[in-house]
Specification:
By secondary structure, this protein is of the alpha/beta class. The chain has one domain: P-loop containing nucleotide triphosphate hydrolases (Rossmann fold, 3-Layer(aba) Sandwich). The protein is 36% helix and 25% strand. The protein is built from seven helices and nine strands; from the N terminus they run βββαββαβαααβαβαβ. The protein has helices spanning 47-55, 77-86, 103-113, 118-131, 148-161, 178-193, 205-211, and strands at 2-13, 19-31, 36-40, 62-67, 70-71, 88-91, 166-170, 197-201, 214-217. The strands form two sheets. Strands 6-7-8-3-9 form a five-stranded parallel sheet. A four-stranded antiparallel sheet has the order 2-1-4-5, covered by helices on one side. The radius of gyration is 18 Å and the shape is globular. The structure holds adenosine-5'-triphosphate (ATP). The site of adenosine-5'-triphosphate (ATP) has 11 residues, from β2 and α1. Residues 2-226 form the ABC transporter domain.
Length: 227
């Protein structure tokens, strides 16, 4: 489902004499449907950079990043947008809040985008908000004024609304209380059970051990640091 081969990345610092910083060389990673792989390695080793390249936020300098048959490293912007709508989800710990949009609509939106009808989208959004313990009285309000933890849970509900075949998780359990952490872990387990291929960064070691099948140490792809 996700196949990365020969991926390299350097950053060019245009405001610092065009210094070239090589951060990744020959990255390899294969994630099968139903599998969850954790990216591990020292701070600065390149975990976030690899995630951003898979999502198409950073452009790889070389190699292939194939997700659901699309090579993100070569794809046109509109192909990447279609991929993000239908195939590849991204769940971070932060919600990008759009003012004046009700929480329930924030969560239902990814479903409407893939053609799910309004009622079914609403029902799925309600199910997720309930599961993530967002009180019903908040559903019609914009999450702009919500607490950090409430916003994080709305973001997780939104990220898991559509049954993406591939998912990127960036510290999805960070700063959650024990009850909600448990809910998120069960959402990840459900996604695996329906066949989603998952790549994640989890500083929560117990969470990683529970939901991840393998760990990939990206230090092995860091120029000058490979064992
Ligand atoms: N936009 C950028 N411009 C220049 N350098 C960058 C950029 N993004 C990342 N880097 C560099 O790439 C390297 C890898 O960073 P990255 O954030 O991917 O590491 P990480 O493994 O996710 O670290 P952490 O665990 O601390 O979040 C670092 O040396 C960082 O300074």
């Amino acid at each position: 489902m996700i196949e990365i081969s020969g991926v390299s990345k350097s950053f060019v610092l245009h405001n610092q004499g065009s210094a070239v910083i090589p951060v990744m060389q020959d990255a390899e990673l294969k994630v099968a449907p139903g599998e969850c792989v954790a990216l591990v390695g020292a701070s600065g080793a390149g975990k976030s950079t690899l995630m951003r390249m898979i999502y198409g936020n950073y452009l790889a300098n070389a190699g292939r990043i194939v997700v659901g048959g699309v090579d993100v490293a070569q794809a046109e912007p509109r192909e990447i947008l279609a991929l993000r709508r239908e195939v590849l989800g991204y769940v971070s710990q932060f919600l990008r809040v759009v003012p004046r949009v009700a929480t329930i609509d924030v969560v239902a939106e990814p479903l409407l985008q893939v053609g799910v009808d309004g009622e079914a989208a609403q029902a799925r959004a309600e199910e997720l908000l309930r599961r993530l313990n967002i009180p019903e009285r908040l559903w019609s309000l914009s999450p702009t004024t919500f607490s950090g933890g409430e916003q994080q849970r709305v973001n997780i509900a939104r990220g898991f609304a559509h049954t993406f075949p591939a998912l990127l998780l960036d510290e999805p359990t960070a700063s959650l209380d024990a009850t909600n952490r448990e809910v998120v872990l069960s959402l990840i387990e459900d996604a695996k059970a329906r066949g989603a291929a998952i790549v994640g960064i989890f500083h929560d070691e117990a969470a990683r051990e529970r939901v991840c099948d393998r760990e990939i140490d990206v230090t092995g792809f860091t120029p000058g640091m490979a064992a």
